[in-house]
Write a structure and sequence with these properties.
Layout (H helix, E strand, L loop, with lengths): L1 E5 L2 H18 L4 E4 L6 H12 L9 E4 L1 E3 L10 H8 L11 E2 L8 H14 L5 E4 L21 E4 L2 H7 L12 E4 L2 H5 L3 E6 L5 H7 L19 E6 L7
Parallel strand pairs: 1-10, 2-3, 2-6, 3-5, 6-9, 9-10
Antiparallel strand pairs: 4-8, 7-8
Helix pairs in contact: 1-2
The structure holds 2-amino-2-deoxy-6-O-phosphono-alpha-D-glucopyranose.
């Protein structure tokens, strides 16, 4: 795992934006794996800027998102579909039919999970997968546990995650308790993975990640087994290294 530390999230996101630009200008029909949360917002703003300046186009880009809350449909302001539209898709030249976010309100969750995995496979390899990290080391919504699921599945959110994500909701009771998430194996289908972590509240997880071991109790540590991972930190996230 390659580690890059930059002064702040603007500079750190710029590295990821340049890696995505390189892909978009060199490949005819690239696939991006995208993440939500506060972490990738600066990156998305930089991509929007590049798109406005005609440095990159999303016309032939396909995207697949990591996860969605169960019980929220795409029009809910806290759904990840809504987030992606607001923070990226509505501002670039992407065809929304090429963008994929799991449906958080399907008639059958099992079917949705199976179909979503099929969608990932039908897109060929994800060229670059963007990941944030939960304060507890989760990736997507793969929460610390004695075992981790390989493919798209329903996940019970931990109390830590519910509390961490309650800042986006009016009250903690409104935070969904379950999510549908790509699994570790789905994430490993990506050719290249970029993990972003910013801020002091990520420093503990990043410190644990720096130990010479992997653990299902720190899902981000499993990424050490993937051949092409770049971890990009700001100084705060790297402060305990
Ligand atoms: C959520 C998402 C993750 C994200 C994490 C960190 O729970 N499922 O994909 O990486 O939160 O969020 P933030 O970037 O807001 O710190």
């Amino acid at each position: 795992m390659k580690i890059i530390v930059k002064k702040d999230k603007d500079e750190a996101s710029k590295i990821a934006a340049e890696m995505i630009k390189e892909l978009l200008v060199s490949k005819e029909s690239p696939t991006l794996g995208l993440a939500t949360g506060s972490t990738p917002i600066t990156l998305y703003q930089q991509l929007i800027e590049m798109n406005k300046k005609n440095e990159i186009s999303f016309r032939n880009v396909k995207t697949v998102n990591l996860d969605e809350y169960i019980g929220l449909d795409g029009s809910h302001p806290q759904s990840y579909r809504f987030f992606m539209n607001e923070n990226l898709f509505n501002h670039v030249d992407i065809d929304k039919s090429n963008t994929h976010v799991p449906n958080g309100n399907p008639s059958s969750l099992d079917e949705e999970a199976k179909n979503y995995e099929k969608i990932i496979d039908s897109l060929g390899h994800i060229d670059i997968q963007i990941l944030g990290v939960g304060p507890n080391g989760h990736i997507g919504f793969n929460e610390p546990n004695t075992h981790l699921q390989l493919y798209t599945h329903v996940e019970d959110l931990t109390q830590t995650t519910i509390e961490a994500n309650s800042r986006f909701f009016d009250s903690i009771d409104q935070v969904p308790k379950k999510a549908i998430s790509m699994g570790i194996g789905s994430i490993f289908k990506a050719k290249k993975i970029i993990v972003l972590a910013f801020g002091k509240n990520k420093a503990d997880a990043i410190k644990d990640l720096s130990h010479d071991e992997i653990s299902t109790n720190l899902p981000v540590s499993i990424l050490k087994l993937h051949p092409d991972v770049t971890l990009i930190l700001d100084e705060d996230a790297a402060s305990l290294l």
